Structures are given as structure tokens and as C-alpha cells.
Amino acid sequence: IPASTVGVPITNINVSSGAAGGTLPYAFSATGLPSGITISAAGVISGAPTTAGAAGMSIITVTDHAGASASIYITYGTISPMLTRIAVAAFTVTEPIVGASPSITIFGCGIDFTCVVSWLPNDDPFQAGVSYTVEIELTAIGTNTFDSSLTATVNGQNANVTVTSDTTATVRFTFPPMRGASALSIPMLNPAMLALLALMLGGLAFRQRRRSV
């Protein structure tokens, strides 16, 4: 029996083809099979392991119609713990700021999966008017796996998710374009406007002098 995983059915194995001689029909039985694995009277081994454990051996016994029997040993592989399916993920990242260097600070990684963070485009520092996408590459840890319908959020907003295998996935989220700091705008005056402004200021100064006399 090949290596297996708790809760995952094994591929059925028919051992009846190895029996010969005696008086038909045959009846099969077994001792020492992993918990959750059984053998039918027709010699089909099936089921799903219920307990993780090391590899081992079992005894398969075939008994013919006359009561004669024979036994063989079979081996089974390591039984791994049950896989944990990850269906939802949530991340918090430092948002882009004009003039700042890209940050790789992120929360939501390290327990069930590891993360590699990158920014697209890879500007340093961030530029105004550009939509930046944070890309988070996920790799499952231990017995964790990603559900094919995995969903994710970045800073509370729905993100795009691509599950590339049971143990790898990519999350992408695009921030809206950033506006640069607005500078104070001073209108340009033509010569006529400048002359008028000078006359107005001169008249204001003359009136103020007359009031003070």
C-alpha cells in the first residue's frame, strides 16, 4: 500500500489475482491494516486512513472453500497527517507613498504559509500618478494546502488570487494612482496688469498719508 494521507481514500488494490490453487471460491481477510483501511472478502483493499503513523506491515490471509488457507505479508507506506485546506487569507501592507521607498512590511504570513512580497512596477521611490500593484507569492507550510477557490483581501479590499498548485498561490492587489503634492500656484501678470497694480498700490499709499496728516 503506497504512502497515504489521513482522510484521503487510497487507490483500491485487488489482491485476488495473486491467489491460485485450492477450491474456489476464495475469501480474504487481513490483520494489521492501518485504521480506516479494510479488505473485502473478494480481496479488494480500500478505505481512507484515520490515523497518521509510520510505515508498517500487514498480513493478508486467503481461505478457500475447503477451509485451506495461506497468508502473505504486505507493506504499507507512511501515513501523513490530514491536510488543512486554506480557503481565506487576509493581508495588511504599507500603502505606497509618493517619494517613499517600497515597503515589504506585511501581516498575515508565517503561520500557515510563507510570503514573498514585491511591487510592480519596481520603482524606488514611489512616483506620483502611477498605479502600483503589490504581489504576494504564497507557499504553504507543513500539511497546509490552498483551496482551489482561495480568496484574499489586502487592507480589507478584495484581491486577485491565482492558485498555481496545492501548495503555491499568488495574490495581487493594485492601489489607485497617487497624486503628488500640489505646489502653490502664482498667476503670471502681463505688463498692463502690473502697471495697474502699481497705480492701485500708489493710490492706497497716498490716501493713507492724507489720513495721517
Describe this protein's structure.
The protein has one helix and 16 strands. The longest helix has 22 residues, at 191-212. It starts with a strand and ends with a helix. The strands form five sheets. Strands 10-9-13-14 form a four-stranded mixed beta sheet, with no helix packed on it. It is mostly beta strands. A hairpin with a 5-residue loop joins strand 6 and strand 7.
Task: Kindly summarize this structure in a few lines.
By secondary structure, the protein is mainly beta.
Mean pLDDT rating: 88
- Can you tell me the residue ranges where pLDDT is under 50 for at least 5 consecutive residues? 182-186
Instruction: Give the C-alpha Rg.
Output: 38 Å
Number of helices: 1
What is the count of β-strands?
16
Order of helices and strands: EEEEEEEEEEEEEEEEH
**What is the distance, rounded to the nearest whole angstrom, between the alpha carbons of the first and last residues?**
115 Å
Oligomer: single chain
Helix content: 10-25%
**What is the topology, as strand order, of the major beta sheet?**
10-9-13-14
